[in-house]
């Protein structure tokens, strides 16, 4: 890193209103835009198999229903694991530099998919390995959110992180809407293979090659690294010792884990429970969940993240009960309506929980230096920024495990009982636990413990 390198910004003070209005705002928004582009494509690649798996039997692949759900689930697990190193990569290599790399590696899952879906003799273990590379797209979220958290002032983090996340999340909807359409077109089928059952499965991978190239170009020419975001991995790993890192990670499985897990499983769930219904309608769920995420962040900025999260889990539980009822009745209209409400609440919860993270770390660090002067306060705010950036990625990594657990649970439930009810009942119980944790740690007004801030009074 060199001081004169234009890709690095050495003076970054988003909390200084004069600095922010003089040009900081423009730079932050430009980085946010290209971060959203790269993350959107990352999410699209991550969820490719949610559609591809539904078409494999039609293309001559003889995999069981449980194996198809595993192909949908394994990218979720790999994506969750990739988020851990991706979280710390931004502060080590720079946000711009890592965005270039993380976007470029998406050529691996897209091109390998394009080749192997044209080989019906591919054994399941190999196809599972190919599907796992799509998890590279899941890692993008952690680095992207960590990076953007440094660009915006605390008062705008809920909006900025919510918009960044929504732009990425909506990639799930994009891939589920566009893939079934583009798989019918021979124009982008570079392998010139004959369609199987009227579809060109290769296009599911090839359709993302040009967008990936655009994302890499945008990151190279329009994004920046922040010197102030540089930090050692040791300093960032301090978050692992923080109690609230683990509490929020558990709660985030309930919100984002539900969003990504349901998004991955929804097309195959429709196909197995309502065979007469086209899976092309599946994109509606992730679309609703993505669009509602900035709204959740905005509400949290206005009211308080913990309050929104608490009531949101109540709504998620009610919607899950509705899904349980209508899937048992084989009523698709009711099933779809309840699932769309469930997706809506996952989006709102995603926004509100992510708004809680920087607030919690800010309050805890400021509490430690109370009465120690302005210099200590400035240092505490910088520490809070570094820690909350790392926590955002770490918590996002843990939460993404839902992308594996939910499709896998549906697959096991259907294999054992013929329906998804057992899995849904487990998810309902999980939401009840998340509801209790939110109230106990962030809303319950109790005598203040020595050495700890009152997070309920701070309205995190």
Which characteristics define this entry?
460 residues, mainly alpha, Growth Hormone, Chain: A, two-stranded parallel sheet, 19 helices, globular
Description:
Mean pLDDT is 89; it is low at 1-5. The protein is built from 19 helices and two strands. The protein folds into two domains: 10-230, MFS general substrate transporter like domains (Growth Hormone, Chain: A), CATH 1.20.1250.20; 231-459, Growth Hormone, Chain: A, CATH 1.20.1250.20. The radius of gyration is 22 Å and the shape is globular. It has 460 residues and is mainly alpha-helical.
Q: What is the subunit organization of this protein? A: single chain
Classify the beta-strand content into a percent band.
under 5%
Number of strands: 2
Low-confidence stretches: 1-5
Number of domains: 2
The number of helices is 19
Fraction of residues in H or I helices = over 70%
- How do the strands of the widest beta sheet line up side by side? 1-2
Task: Output the CATH homologous superfamily of the largest domain.
Answer: MFS general substrate transporter like domains
Element pattern in H and E: EHHHHHHHHHHEHHHHHHHHH
The SS-based structural class is mainly alpha
Mean pLDDT: 89
- CATH fold naming of the largest domain: Growth Hormone, Chain: A
Q: Give the second-level CATH assignment, the architecture of the largest domain.
A: Up-down Bundle
- Largest β-sheet summary: 2 strands, parallel
Task: Choose one word for the global shape.
Answer: globular
N-to-C terminal Cα separation, in Å?
Answer: 36 Å
CA radius of gyration: 22 Å
- What is the CATH class designation of the largest domain? Mainly Alpha
GO molecular function: nitrate transmembrane transporter activity; secondary active transmembrane transporter activity
Membrane topology: Multi-pass membrane protein
GO cellular component, one term: plasma membrane
Family: Belongs to the major facilitator superfamily. Nitrate/nitrite porter (TC 2.A.1.8) family.
